[in-house]
Amino acid sequence: MKNNSDIEKLKFPIGKCPKIDSISEKDLEPWIAIIELFPSKVKNLTSTLSDEELNWIYRPKGWSIKQVVHHCADSHMNSFVRFKLALTEEVPTIKPYEEALWAELADGNSDHILPSLQIIEGVHARWVLLLKSMGSTALKRQFFHPVNLKIASLEETIGVYAWHCNHHLAHIEQALLHKGQF
Q: Which of 17, 39, 51, 144 has the greatest number of beta carbons closer than 10 A?
């Protein structure tokens, strides 16, 4: 895979996150189900991998499988906190973080993924409980993201994180399929 189009397909194996214009209850149920099932899916894909396999990358200059798992723990913890802030404050400004730099820290680059799998499992259990408890008013609550200068609703963010779960599962599957060879 040499051209930019091929690299783009490896970077976004399920496509880029779609712009969400209109959201219905029919959209929310499957999105929440994706978030609910993510911990078991990522665990099933990774629990028997060797250290060598955990170091396989999903694309040239991409993260390793272990970094993807650690990133999901970091990202989903941050998202859960953002939901709680939006539910308890009026359009709070969330704190962004440097995800690429976090992936290079010792905990983000560790071969020991069990702690991150446990974080994902715990955060998702609480997050899904929270998501299923939210009524239409709560779903409309918002937060401000200072990096992209955008106000996002919680219902929109549910869709983004359903995509995020599937996006990173596809990265792990891609790394496994190609055995990290690009």
A: 39
